Amino acid sequence: MLTHFLRLALLTLSLLLPAQFAQAQPTDIPARIAAMGEANLRELTSIVTDLAATGDPAVVPVLTALGGGNLYLDETSGRIVIQGRSAITDPLTGEEVDLGAGADLSRIRVNNSLRRDIASALAGMTLMSDNPATRFSAAQGFLAKPDPINIPLLDEAIAAETDSNVLRLMQAARAVTILSDSEAGIEDRRAAVPGVVAGAGRNAITILTGALANAPDELRPTIEAALAGLEQSRAVWSALQNVWFGVSLGSVLLLAAIGLAITFGVMGVINMAHGEMVMLGAYTTFLVQLVIRQSFPGLLDYSLLIALPVAFLVTGAIGVGIERGIIRWLYGRPLETLLATWGLSLILQQTVRSIFGPTNQMVIAPTWMSGSTDFFGLAITYNRFWIVIFALIVFFMLLLILNRTPLGLQMRAVTQNRRMASSMGIRTPFVDAMTFGLGSGIAGLAGVALTQIDNISPNLGQNYIIDSFMVVVFGGVGNLWGTFVGALTLGIANKFLEPYAGAVLGKILILVLIILFIQRRPRGLFALKGRAVEQ
Amino acid sequence: MLTQALLRALDKKAVWVIGIFLAVAILVPMANLLIPPGQFGHVPTYMVSLFGKYLSYAMLALALDLVWGYCGILSLGHGAFFALGGYAMGMYLMRQIGSRGVYGNPVLPDFMVFLNWKELPWYWLGFDNFWFAMAMVVVVPGLLAFVFGFFAFRSRVTGVYLSIMTQAMTFALLLAFFRNDMGFGGNNGLTDFKDILGAPVQAQTTRVALFAATAVALALSVLVCSMIVNSKLGKVMIAVRDAESRTRFIGYRVEYVKLFAFTVSAIMAGIAGALYVPQVGIINPGEFEPGNSIEVVIWAAVGGRGTLVGPIIGAIAVNLGKSWFTTAFPEFWLFALGALFIFVTLFLPKGIVGLWQQIFERRRKTPAPPSPSQSADVERGKDPASFSNPQPRPAE
Amino acid sequence: MSKAQDTMLYLDGVSVAFDGFKAINNLSIIVRPTEMLAIIGPNGAGKTTMMDIITGKTRPDTGDVMFDGRTDLTRLDEAAIANLGIGRKFQKPTVFESHTVWDNLEMALRKPRGIFAALFYTPSDDDIAQITGILETVRLLHRKDELAANLSHGQKQWLEIGMLLAQDPKLLLVDEPVAGMTDSETGETAKLLREIAQTRSVVVVEHDMSFVRELGSRVICLAEGAVLAEGSLDQVSANPVVIERYLGR
Amino acid sequence: MNFSRTKSALLAAALAGGIALPIVPVLAQDDTIKVGILHSLSGTMAISETTLKDTMLFLIEQQNAKGGVLGKQLEPVVVDIASDWPLAAELARQLIEVDGVDAVFGCWTSVCRKSVLPVFEELNSLLFYPVQYEGEESQRNVFYTGASPNQQAIPAVDYLMNEEGVERWVLAGTDYVYPQTTNKILEQYLLDKGVASDDIMINYTPFGHSDWQTIVSDIKTFGSAGKKTAVVSTINGDANVPFYRELGNQGVMAEDIPVVAFSVGEEELSGFDTTPLVGHLAAWNYFMSVDTPENEAFIADWQSFIGSEDRVTNDPMEAHMIGFNLWVKAVEAAGSTDADAVIDSIVGLETPNLTGGTATMLPNHHITKPVLIGEIQDDGQFFVVWETEDLVPGDAWSDFLPESAMLEADWTAPINCGNYNTETQTCGGTAQ
After folding, report:
1. CB contact (8 A) between residue A519 and residue B395
2. A307: which of A288, C193, C210, D181 fits an S-S bond (Cβ 3.0–4.6 Å)?
């Protein structure tokens, strides 16, 4: 109990700016909240400081809501309310309120600086919250705004802390605070440096450089040493980071190209409409999510998973249609399939453009695909991570289909010797249609994944078609492993070139390298051998 | 020797095509300059430059057909040669602006001035001289084609692989020319030309002259092409197209044959580009778009590949359609274009000319060019000469 | 080297394998100038592969291939070998179908193969006479202006032989020349080849035993990429192993 | 073969002739005034430009409802330049010569403007160009109703400096002329403001760049130098979605490293979920969220015209609206649609913009605009956090580029010059 008052006192002190709000009384909290309705940004800022100054836990929900943009003013009744997920509640009491009809909610808007103030204000009040996540963000708040006055508070929190992550962060925050406190003893400050390095993660460098600026000379060497160490490890990690970037870029290329490895690599159809299949996959995802958002909002997080089979079927079906309608007349004339499918791609693009309009469509990222994790200094974004996983799954599924299923067997039979296959009673037209459908379906799957990193616009496909062909040709036509290795090689090479050559030059270099490579190995990385290829 | 070759080129009825374009080169300018506007038969200047543009496209399509229709090399990068020729011309025109640019800088083009370039990059030197520029129009595309072709054909990169590589080439150039640091004006390219050989580019007479020049150039390229295809070399080219390795076995160096055709064709494309730029008044990296190169193939296919007049007809027809559609049905012209591509490949494998032959010459027993499926057999690797070829061939 | 002396074609210890499968296995064959050699053997014996090696289409893994006693063929490519004077006729007749019979021969005619030579080539009266002569030999004079595509199978065979003659080679490699020919045509072909063999070396690959008999030349039987038996047709066909492996009972 | 050659040759001639004859320029009928609309409806730029085409149709319909201009109805002539710039020049020529339009509204990219510019100059017609651009140009026949750098970039940088206390700058852009020039100007401006040159990082990416991992992590590293860092983005349309996604996913929060964009408006944001972007900024001269009666009415009419409640409005649309109204006023004032008359009468005319101010056509053919800074909200709208007290006049020639500092544009007598050198008192450039 006593500690609680002590904390409040400290807090109040800590947030006493400007001074005239020193006599802030808990009683006028409602008034202040009410005042938010008509306040402009400057007034709002002072009100926030003001509310924070009361140190009353009751204001936490208000500030949280304000920061999160969930605080509304009902124009008609003039009430300030919190727009929750399910219900509208009163900011102070937290009870549900019924504004009745005629309610006209308008959001109380905040800007960056205000958001920062709120975060730091909340930090103090939520450091003892029961929810570790809240405590974590609170600790972050302290990390961001170190202030000596908070040290006892931090100490207490650290003593009480159970969650190791939060604890590490709190200790870091404490270390930072000491380090940046000019009153604190040199020894303490020096001792604090390792704490910062240990706890602050990627921000450590930022903090230390900041501290270095106004550190006394006797402190400098320690900080500089620590910085040097960090820089070194960062150099190592940045190399690994590049590999990761390369892998994730490679997996995108793989996804985009693997369908082509079937239609072009296995069937020999120069499928210029491949990119459009990807695009259609993306649009299917968009539609699926649209339906889900309107009818079953609960499933929103799984919309991508639901979209996968749908996209596969839709694009697969379209693929079969194309094969039956156009491609089958052109077998043995690969260069002419190029022309026909190019025309087809124009039509598909324009169709989508006239149905959905030329502008980008929105696919919301599911929560499990947004944000990133800090894997020992490697920043790994979840969407990239899942796409890598997904690419691998698709690839190995495909291998399985081709090598372990009757359909796969027939596909290989037909592509290796059409006449022989048909004379052995394989229904070649059916197999052709299925093969092309499979390739297109996989393109559709790629489309689903691409919704997470790229525009969903009619031009989506064009951005990938050339790269896809490069990957397949580089890897060696008709060889899935070639496509696999090719995609990853190109991805990683690209990412290692980019820092030195820049994005544009890097891409150019890659293209030139591919051209040169093909001179050396005219059949690509993993060329098919034997006579089978000749038919 | 040359004269004989010329005669051989002419006695084939290519003389007609040549004649027509020479006539056009004279009549259209007259119709524009002599017949007063409004009167019947007057060709407005607008139409003149429009058709000038089409003719340069036709020349490009002809160049492509020389390698594709006759030598079986499907190049999806001819737009690059066209654009390079165009840039060479554009650089000359930029230098001609002199101090009339918005900043009045006598040497630097405007885009260099406001990007704070201090002096002219070395590769811009000499382009103030018309003849040097014209030399570059020929040399740059020719050289690129020669080097690219030399390596590609020597290491026997064929069929689909070659096509994709040419795409890669033009795509790489596209990205390169987009870069402002390259000093070619980046995305904006080269524009706002003032005059060519002292004559203002916009002037009616200049436009008409440019048109005439294009028509003559086209006639000349038809002459050159017909000279080539009617010579024994032309026959060898067709042999290469139909049965590449068989041609090797009777002792011809296939790679050189291809290299010759590819280089000549690239040079023609470059010249076409050089004639195109002053008539449209701009050259920018968009010309390197892989899509453009593919469209050129379509023109040739629509008109009828493997003939000299086919690509010309195709280029003019498709572009007329394009101009008309983009105004008449802006929303739908892509549908039309796409449908055209599919229709032609499915139902008109020999293009308009082929159709023409089918309709008017069914009875006459005239040797027809090989049907695509025949030559396709070859593409499929059924070329018997390669039956026991242990070298893997592309799974076409 | 000395062993290669005064031979037209000299293969010694030649082997080549595709993905482990030994198509040619330590093969040694000698063809003397103006000699006719018939090669028989079951399918997959490596007959065609042998021709690929000689004509530079396939590089042997090991072994020497010498032409005219001095030229190492393994270092040259198809065109160079063809220009040395080795002509090849393919199993399936391969003529340039979109060219007329005449043009086929004109292209094959032994003349400078360079680009510009070809570009500015105009047939001299001598050339025309030569081509006409060949057309008579292969009995195609009456169809000289037709597309090769319109020829019958047998005629294509002969046109291809005509192209061989036009190349005026020192060594002819003829792969199944009488496939799909009538008996009379077969006879004619045998006669023609014998004539040719007066002045040049000829290697014939054939299944048709009666035809081989008509050739009346030395015979080699290949199997699994190696020489199974060698000698006159009677000797070879009497050889039990050959009967066992190829002729069958 | 040969015969066929002849025949087809004749066919070619017939074809050419046959088509050539019917296309003889038709002079504009007197009963309507034709207005050309020159935008990309297909190709890469369709994403941005299609809306502008609809906007023009909408404005023209409104005007006709009000009785047209000079008692005549307006007749829109729409063409598709298909993101193909030589085609743009050809179609511009066709609009003017064949269709006989009196004014053209169109183009988005600089290259489009550059390619049609000579045509308008030669045929002396009018082009209204509605998009923010790099400046360094003023042409007698062109009216620039979009922002020039001093009406967008400079104020935005000022805001970041003063309000957010930014000391370290990333200038990220797509590699084409608008970002290149804008960044050149900004770099100079920042240096003048005393920013150290190693506190400025400039980065260019190709069009439609979709893999931003490296660049975003570079930005994070650059931002971890202990100084407040901000990104000034001139990244072009399509590349923005993946860019912002990567920002969001790599946890670059607006509180830490705000991004201020010059090419991201409501239209672009409608393409994705903006929750992770809340707080990032954009600088424009108009936002859909601006709360004025004019804007409310405009949005309502637009949405009813286009028949969709969720279609947004954006800055270039307002620019077209202003340009169109100014043109109408000028035609009324001149009593004719003749180009020269309009050019003379339009300078100095005023029309209300949608943000409660008035747009004035300046002698340099640019207009006065307010500058607004907005923060992205999670509903894809912008919340105006700052705006200039008074209108900023568009400046054709930047004062921060050495070569153009002493240039002025004035299309009124006596100067009548697009690049008047105030030092040498002569028309035509600096380097004389």
Report:
1. no
2. A288
